[in-house]
């Protein structure tokens, strides 16, 4: 159990660092599909080498699920990188990472996983957090408009 938690925390740190790299790339003007292509150049050979080194490369029909997931991941990361062109990473990354709420809902609705009180409370808190982020976005947008109106008035 603690090994699983350590892996989850490691993934959290790695994804957090990756988000900063995504933002830097977006700020540098890298187009999302170019960025994802370069990411794939590193990811694919690394995964292939890892599977070969461990003797765990199994090409079976069920591997098509990985290809399907890869398509959705490409779309998701592409949209995320686009969102970082002008968007704040402190807002867009948490929204992007709230995808687990959709995953949890699909797991309950489609896969029949149980929905206990703690899971329901966690999802409710995540939705509340998303509402807080949305309010923060509105607040900063209206502040930006107010500031620019003041600047236009002064000019």
Question: Can you put this structure into words, describing what you see?
Answer:
Helices cover 82% and strands 0% of the residues. The chain has 6 helices and no strands. The termini are far apart. The chain is globular, with a radius of gyration of 20 Å. Helix 2 runs antiparallel to helix 3. By secondary structure, it is an all-alpha fold. The model is unreliable at 147-155 (pLDDT under 50).
Labels describing this entry:
6 helices; mainly alpha; single chain
Short description:
The protein has 155 residues and is an all-alpha fold. Helix content is 82%, strand content 0%.
Mind sketching the topology for me?
Elements: H1 2-27, H2 32-54, H3 64-83, H4 89-97, H5 99-109, H6 117-154
Give the helix level as a range of percent: over 70%
How far is the N terminus from the C terminus? 62 Å
Number of helices: 6
Largest sheet: none
Proportion of β residues?
under 5%
Oligomer: single chain
Rg over alpha carbons: 20 Å
Provide the low-confidence segments as ranges: 147-155
**Structural class given helices, strands, pairing?**
mainly alpha
Mean pLDDT: 85
Please state the overall shape, judged from the principal axes of the Cα atoms: globular
Q: Strand tally, please?
A: 0
* SSE succession: HHHHHH
């Amino acid at each position: 159990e603690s090994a699983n938690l350590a892996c989850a925390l490691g993934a959290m740190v790695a994804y957090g660092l990756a988000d900063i790299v995504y933002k830097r790339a977006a700020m540098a003007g890298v187009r999302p599909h170019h960025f994802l292509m370069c990411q794939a150049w590193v990811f694919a050979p690394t995964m292939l080498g890892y599977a070969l080194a461990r003797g765990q490369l199994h090409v079976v029909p069920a591997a098509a699920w990985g290809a399907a997931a890869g398509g959705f991941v490409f779309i998701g990361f592409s949209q995320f990188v686009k969102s970082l062109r002008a968007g704040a990473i402190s807002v867009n990354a948490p929204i992007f990472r709230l995808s687990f709420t959709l995953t949890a809902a699909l797991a309950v609705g489609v896969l029949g996983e149980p929905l206990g009180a703690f899971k329901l409370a966690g999802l409710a808190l995540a939705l509340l957090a998303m509402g807080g982020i949305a309010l923060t976005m509105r607040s900063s947008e209206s502040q930006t408009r107010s500031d620019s109106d003041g600047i236009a008035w002064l000019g």
